[in-house]
Amino acid sequence: MRTARIKIAAExxxxxxxxxxxxxxxxxxxxxxxxxILRRQLWLTAEFCGVEILTYAILSNHFHVLVRVPxxxxxxxxxxxxxYKLLHPxxxxxxxxxxxxIEEQLASGGPEGEAWRRRQLALMGDVSAFxxxxxxxxxxxxNKAHQRYGxxxxxRFKSVLVENQTNALRTxxxxxxxxxxxxxxxxDPKDYRFCGYGEAIAGHKTARxxxxxxxxGDWRRAHAVHRIGLFGTGSAPRSRGATIDPAxxxxxxxxxxxLPLTDVLRCRVRYFTDAAVLxxxxxxxxxxxxxxxxHGTRERTAPxxxxxxxxxxxxxxxxGLRKTPFG
Length: 327
Hints:
The chain is α+β, with helices and mostly antiparallel strands. 50% of the residues lie in helices and 11% in strands. It has helices at 2-11, 32-49, 77-86, 93-108, 111-121, 127-145, 166-177, 179-182, 196-201, 205-215, 219-231, 246-254, 261-264, 271-274, 281-295, and strands at 15-22, 52-58, 62-69, 158-162, 277-279, 304-305, 316-317. Strands 2-3-1-4-5-7-6 form a seven-stranded mixed beta sheet, with helices on both faces.
C-alpha cells in the first residue's frame, strides 16, 4: 500500500520523503571513515538523481535523509552526461572508452543512444531509485574496504511521505537532526559532522540551502529558526540524550499530560518512520483518497491525530500505530 501511494503523490508534482534504512541486524559497523564516504555519496547520488537533500543524519547502524523529489522532467543530453560523469570521477580506461561511445550514440540519434537515455532517466526523479543507487554504491565500497561480501542493509528502506509545507517539514527535519543527540553522541547537533545541520554550520553551501528551503529567507534567518526548534526559545544546548527519562515519559503518557515539543523530539517517535504519510488532515486525506481511487479499496481508515503529548501544530498520520508511538 505504501509504495503505490507514494508513486501517486510523486506523479502529481513535487514530493518530500523521509527515508530511513538500517544495517543487517542493526550492527554498528559504520564507523567515522565509512560515515564520511556515505556522506559524500549521499550528496553525489542526490545530484545525479536530480533530487534535493533538505537534511540528513548518519549513525553507526542506520541513516536518515529528508529528500525533496521534484516533478520528473527529462534533462537534455548534456546534463545527462554531466550527471553520469559524477558517478565516475576517476574513470577506468574501459569507462572512458565507454563514455566516448555513449557520446557518439547520443549524437547520432540512434536506438543505442535512446536506450542509454532511458536507462539514465529511470534512475532520476524517483525516491526508490535514489535510495537503491545510494545503498548499492555504498555497500560495494564498504564490502571492498572491509573484505566482506553479502548484504549490508536490511530489507527495503522505510519511507514517510511528508507534506510539502512548513510545519510538517520543519518538525521532520528537527527530528532527523536530533538523531545524534538522542544517541548520546553530542549535546548539540552542530558538533556532529554527519548530519545536515552540523554540515550547514560548517559552511556547506548545499546543506545550508536545504535548511533555507525549510525555513525560508537567508541562512541567518533559517539558522535562527532551526536553532530555536532544536532547543526552544533559549537556543542553548542541553545534556546528551533525551531530556526526560523513560519512566517519567511513560507517566506523562498514562496521565495524558503534555510536554514541550523540543522534549518529545529527543525521544524516539515512531510516527516519523512508520506513519506512511505525515501532514495536515487535508493532505493525509488526499493521499488516502488517491490510493482508494487507484486500487478500489473500501474506506477502512482515516487520518489519525498524533498522540496529544505535545503541540504538533495540527499534524496527522495515515497509519495508526498498534504499539506505543514512542520508544
